[in-house]
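Box S1 | Example of a co-folding query
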Amino acid sequence: MPDYQATYKKLCEHYLKTTKLTGVSELIGWDERTMLPSKGGEYRAEQITILAGILHERNTDARIGDWLSELADSPWAAEPHSDQGTVIRQLKREYEKETKLPQRLVEELSKAHVLGQQAWVKARAANDFKSFAPVLEQIVSLAKEVTEAIGYEDSPYDALLDFYEPEAKTSEVTAVLAALKDDLVPLVAEIADSGKSPDREIMQRKYPIAAQEAFGKEAAAAIGFDFEAGRLDVTHHPFCCGMGPYDCRITTRYDENFFPSAFFGIMHETGHGLYEQGLRKDCYGLPPGKYVSLGIHESQSRLWENCVGRSKAFWDHFFPAAQNYFPEALADVTVDQFQFGVNDVRPSLIRVEADEVTYNLHIIIRFELEQALIDGSLQVKDLPGAWNEKYQSMLGISSPDDADGCLQDVHWGAGLIGYFPTYSLGNIYSAQLYDKAGEDLGNLDEMFARGEFLPLLDWLRTNIHESGQNYRATELVENVTGKKFDHKPLIRQLRAKLAPLYGIQE
Ligand code: ZN
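Box S1 (continued) | Returned holo structure for zinc ion
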């Protein structure tokens, strides 16, 4: 009988070493997006490319195939949700996928994506889509090569989506987002017709950046972010990355004359960071100690940003602190005015600053456009026009320039095609999880008003973070909530929160 134990150990050791190297790659990638002087970009792109090549070699090492085929007959393989079964199942899936991508393609992708991000930063600053178009054309053409190399059943987009939301299908995502859109559009109209809106001038007062940073950190720490195992820095396009079990970096960008931008950015990235910090340390880097999908990752950020951070109870607790940090801006403001201010729902141009209701329409636009780029029905040069048409038809607005139009997001420049829908999946999951947490824990609002956020974090740790990849995303949500994947809880929660503000129906 084969020595399964010894083989399993070799497999795990190989991946644990790879994880340490991945952490190095994450670290220089983080540095590139936060600290790197602009002239250092090209050399850094080469460094990242070399590391991507080494990682790909390690991930496609033929010994992995041998170890996995031996372990396929082990008793563990028959228990797909146990830790060992999960390691075998998930590594097999990843290995099969990686080995379909030729080394040349992996290195080209990596370099194109780093240079693409750098080109995007310049093009956006200069409002110059023309300079960015050839870079994006190359990225789209490489993405098409990826879909052919990986293969797909129905739609080439499936192959890309799978990188971010494993096992999700384009057709299913399309159906869920369509149902969501059907419920959101009337809600946006009801709010517009309510004739009510917050006093917007309050959010546009002067909020000194140092105070924003201190207040953001206080809130992040209060909801459980461990600053001895993480940092907060400044970037162009906020993100979170984990580079070790005790090293998670979150980022934001500040606008001195608009409070919500950085604060909710920090709440959002903290939500991601809490998931990273909540992963199991005993198997960090192996599938039971890894995040399960970007949709679930996003559910964690949305839950803290929106379900918690925009609630009345959250501000009942935090508003006095806000008044201390921003005495000039908030001296004459009430908590009700402030909470209405952070729930300002109306069509706008910038996705990352959109309210949580219209946000999903921004996603649906991108989801449709990137599918069209991949299936060839849209050419890169026609993207600005197509972008504005969709904004006009779905949100009734269009951007005066490309910087705030199709150049606003880093994703396509960074090669992240297939990523956008995971944001809306995250919104949907977050509402389902938040419902269930409330059922299990009792009145969350009363806890928040007392400044108690850790019971909710503990609940998420137990039910989501520590579950790693032992179940796939939809199974996990179904196991935890006892309900099928459903967008209705999101609509219900939005209506419940917004009804008292806008006088619409719950
Ligand atoms: Zn996010």
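The pocket of zinc ion is lined by residues 268, 272, 298, 301 (CB under 6 Å). The longest strand covers residues 247-252.
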